[in-house]
Amino acid sequence: MARGARGRVGRLAGLGAGALALVTLLGGCDVGSAFGFGWPGGVTPQANRMYDLWIGSVIAALAVGVLVWGLIFWCVVRYRKRSDQLPVQTRYNMPMEFLYTIAPILVVCVLFYYTAVVQTDVDRKSGNPDVTVEVVAFKWGWQFNYRDGIGEDANTVASTLGSADVIPVLVLPTGQRIRFEETSKDVIHSFWVPELLFKRDVFPGNVRNVFEVASIDQEGAYVGRCAELCGTYHSMMNFELRAVSPAEYEQFLQAKRDGATTQEALQSIGESPLATTTVPFETRRDVSNFNQSSTGG
């Protein structure tokens, strides 16, 4: 086979292998995941800002990468060895050295600026949130106290306590600013709802870790985890965040004030009384077998 023919066959084989790899890669994700570059979608304004920062950072990294790869391949082709003659030796190139010194500094400064802006906005706390929830972690479960104000001096008006049989459901309204005040009864835990894109450690003692979300934009059920290794049953320390309309939230809270269990209060607003999004762990999710007189906050 002639050298030219072998070259064409090699190029076709390379293109075929690349196309196969691309199809295999893209076949494993939907359009949103592909263009999200691995960053999950969120349901809060803070989550959307973090998503935008991530996308911008990845695009900037890809642009720099394409430029560097292009220069490398251009040098490989343009300055490949053509003879045994030694090429002209250049001791320094001031424009090039200036470029690869200043350009990384500018990139880092821009990324630092936008990271600081987004982080400051994400961590911002208001003095008058619409809803305040005290998150109490313990081995190996959760208690959620609905408070009438902020700080340790506020009063608990309703509470949800998880048990060995019933995974706790934290009910919150959409469209309202929510404050989380976290504390632990024993060791360090971590409050994590992937759709909020927040993971905040929960410390024992007098330390209260506080954060807020501007609003939850979508109604639904969202899985919650403990994201800090805390002991034997850490993997089973789950909860569910149930986002409902403000009217349904007030109805739920009033039912709790009137003495209803969390499961009964959830049923009163037409919601499933048990957690439904704790996959992949086995949970008690068969509503037909649910006994309203069972334990559960």
Automatic annotation (TrEMBL):
Cofactor(s), names only, from the UniProt record: Cu cation
Keyword Translocase: yes
Residue span, Cytochrome oxidase subunit II transmembrane region profile domain: 31-126
Gene3D superfamilies associated with the record: 1.10.287.90, Cupredoxins - blue copper proteins
Localization per Swiss-Prot or TrEMBL: Cell membrane; Membrane
Chemical reaction(s) catalysed: 4 Fe(II)-[cytochrome c] + O2 + 8 H(+)(in) = 4 Fe(III)-[cytochrome c] + 2 H2O + 4 H(+)(out)
Region (Disordered) residue spans: 277-297
EC number per UniProt: 7.1.1.9
Pfam families referenced in this protein's UniProt entry, alphabetically: COX2 (PF00116), COX2_TM (PF02790)
Bilayer topology term: Multi-pass membrane protein
Limits of the Cytochrome oxidase subunit II copper A binding domain: 128-255
Cofactor binding, note field: Binds a copper A center.
Keyword Secreted: no
Keyword terms: Copper, Electron transport, Membrane, Metal-binding, Respiratory chain, Translocase, Transmembrane, Transmembrane helix, Transport
Biased composition (Polar residues): 288-297
Annotated transmembrane regions: 12-33, 53-77, 98-116
Family: Belongs to the cytochrome c oxidase subunit 2 family.
Function noted in UniProt: Subunits I and II form the functional core of the enzyme complex. Electrons originating in cytochrome c are transferred via heme a and Cu(A) to the binuclear center formed by heme a3 and Cu(B).
Name of the molecule in the record: Cytochrome c oxidase subunit 2
Protein's organism: Phytohabitans kaempferiae
